[in-house]
């Protein structure tokens, strides 16, 4: 199956970067909320 | 592997049900789910104990007997000698000469693939170890005492092997590659390199001892032995063949300094080879253009490729070190140095996954040549037909483009899930509370997702 992504051209690598960004953002958010919870305790 | 018509390019074009990048998303989800499953269900370290059980059958013991070792060593020496002879005396056509396929496909890829299942298979066939041991035994018989050796510097660890690994890949991929310039790796320089490496290795064995050098500095012993740590068979201190828990022997592999550099060099060199004619092509051509203005085009290509390979090594190392640095944020974490060494073995399945993903199709195709026309006509001069298979060929229809892609994705996912499992298991050693251990692995999860997506991106571009 080919999605109409031809115009994306050389920026197709962004689609491979997004899962990494999601994971990193998730880790940062979790770490910060855990730290906040610990400070409140 | 540029000297042979590259297997990826020869298969028909892929016709995937979904775009290639969606596989990266799916693989990432598999890793995240595996991470949470490990966090919930894996609360005790399981791989630290190898659970060695000696094999009772007589065959494994016969395999470790002195005559069997002598026979295996002799086979190794003969094959190395023959490959060198074929390289020096055979045809210059790389795909018709026994030397290149035997050294760079059958050995360089075959030993990692099969050692990862069965344990270190190279050790008994190591030609330099066999020569070193025979010379040592001869010396002892004459002098009445074993040869004296220098003390191997502890800090040097496996660094000679890591540098040597990059040098081997440099010879094959960069010296023999030369994108855009018609060079290609011919058999003669490979034979000369093998002779020089043999002289260097035997000199180092004489200086530091055969087993010490094989354990620390001999490139092929260290590299193949690293994958052998994943396998189910090994030997104990008394020389008996033992069966052990799969992957468990890897946990003690990285204690020697420089081990992390070896496994990172393996990932980086495979990545570079995959990216050279794909993802890196445009930037490489750009930088080559700058160099070409100052010198010859061939030197410019090699200099640019060398820089990109070293940058890949630095980039892969940086991703790993960031993962290790992330672990330090969890209370009770050991020192950075201890974590860096302690988690290096978790990259071995990833190095294997990269190797399988990038080269398994090349291996399948080229081994057909190895066991047909290269076996019967090893010099490629069309003057011999030793086994009646000289007219054989490669059936490129054996693997479809889709089958290659699914094996590539499968290898990367399985390799990274294994890496994640080994990392979680090691974290439970450093953080006895499983919640802290799981928290420490957040960043290793990011490392694994990054390596998976990077690997799939490289493959998708080079598969084109």
Main attributes of the structure:
A: 41 residues; mainly alpha; rod-shaped; B: mainly alpha; three-stranded antiparallel beta sheet; 21 helices; 3 strands; 66% helix
Tell me the count of domains of chain B.
1
Mean of residue pLDDT values of chain A: 82
Whole-number average pLDDT of chain B? 90
Number of strands of chain A: 0
- Main sheet overview of chain A: none
> Largest contact between protein chains?
A-B, 20 and 25 residues
Protein model, in words:
The complex is a heterodimer of chains A (41) and B (464). Chain A has one helix spanning 13-40. With 41 residues, chain A is mostly helical. The N and C termini of chain A lie far apart (52 Å). The relative contact order of chain A is 0.09. In chain B, a hairpin with a 5-residue loop joins strand 2 and strand 3. Chain B is built from 21 helices and three strands. In chain B, helix 2 packs parallel to helix 19. The longest helix of chain B is centred in the last third of the chain and has 31 residues, at 297-327. Mean pLDDT of chain B is 90; it is low at 1-12 and 179-183. Chains A and B meet through helix 1 of A and helix 2 and helix 21 of B.
